[in-house]
Amino acid sequence: MIEPSHPPAQVPTRDSAIRLEGVRVRFDEHEVLKGVDLEVKKGEFIAIIGPSGGGKSTLLRVIAGLQKAQGSVSVVGQPAMVFQDYRLLPWRTVEGNIRLPIELTGRGKVETYLGMRKVKHLYPHQLSGGMKARVAIARALAQDAEVLLMDEPFAALDALVRERFNLELKSLHARTGKTIVFVTHSIREAVYLADRVVVLKDGRIDTVLDTSGEGRLTAFTDGLEALLRERLGIADSTLVEPPPQPLRPPWEVFGVLGLAGLLLLSWTWLSARIPLFFPSPWAVWQAAVQNAPQLAHGALATLEVAALGVLCALLVGTPIGYLMGRSRTVERLLSPFIVALQAIPTVIVAPLLVIWFGFSLEAKLITTTLISIFPVMVSTMVGVREVDRIYREVFQTIGASPWGVFTKLEVPGALPVVLGGLRLTVSLALIGAVVADFTFQGEGLGAFANTERLSFRYASAFAAVGVNVALGIALYGLVTLLEYWVLRYRRR
Ligand SMILES: Nc1ncnc2c1ncn2[C@@H]1O[C@H](COP(=O)(O)OP(=O)(O)OP(=O)(O)O)[C@@H](O)[C@H]1O
To answer: d(Cα 20, Cα 35) in Å, to the nearest integer?
Structure first.
């Protein structure tokens, strides 16, 4: 759960949106804010400028509730925030990102798409810097908060685009009447946009200048600059849709086929040297055709146990992995047992299971789950831990509930790593199903291969192994397809 970082804000006076009194922030020995007093009126546009490291971002984070501080902080409602690095969720489209606050809180509305409606189906990696800025601002506006905090949102944009954004932001402020606190390094931008410019130096407010009325459009429309702008054109480069990516030729497929051919040749060569115990590919193929009904029956039985094993591994492994990912204490508590469990040789334990549970499905599932659960737990733990803190802060500024954070951040954020682990899990579950079959005299491929081996019919035993390998490849392919679909936002 995301904890609020400073005590609940007091309600500011009637016409003030933000009131800071004696705000101090210290990181170890370094006092970054040394007693900041500031009152921002409702509807006011404040720009904060100052030298690098002067505490501008820290002050904004204090107002947003992301940074603990001493002193008194009062804000009307939870402010919306536009971060310098935009922090768009990579698995959501433009529209999905803009609508996030509405989905999480059930409040707010899409105020504006800021010209991004035509590309609302694109994912963040398909956008230019300017387009990302538009989406980040539109998302903050959709939150419909009284206060909008902007931390150098245009820093990464080129000068022309930046000026266009300045114009748009100014008219947006006039239209919405929001209270805006805007951090920038550009004096010109600050003077053009803000009603008051605050100079923050060495953790203290150095100067507050009334600049209302200074933001004349003439600065952009008069003189040589205006002439150059006219020559360059006023087309907005931030709205250009990126060109479609060309399809890659399927070289990988040829590579795989070539390698498979090489393996087959080596197999033929080897089997000619050990003919009695190492059947040739052709002999295995003939045995497979002769035993097709038994092999099909065995494959289905093995598949059933493997699939149920994967299901059990997911049902038991993901909650444990999630708890370990969220809490270092839980991880420290459980990891010795999990590592010990992984080190238990299942082939030795499995015969004991026969004594405890008999030749039952439960015993088979326990064996399969024991063999395949480890990657599920570890990948879920790593996946949950890898969900970047920067995205958690976005959810915190939106005021998301723990359930919202779980469903819209942790699950999609951890999914790429969990799916990577699932590839390993399905292969291990198949091995588990064969081991279980071997031990519990089932009807699957393991039992068939064992019977054939004991009767010296090596070709049919190899055929069973071959079918199991084919099943492994098919299951792996299925997970890869699922991954391809789930991670479609990453495709370029
Ligand atoms: N979480 C943190 N832990 C330790 N020190 C921090 C932390 N966050 C910020 N600082 C330090 O606090 C100081 C002020 O940082 P801050 O980002 O607020 O400055 P800034 O004025 O926004 O700088 P810039 O203009 O370069 O973005 C810096 O010296 C920075 O190293």
So the answer is: 9
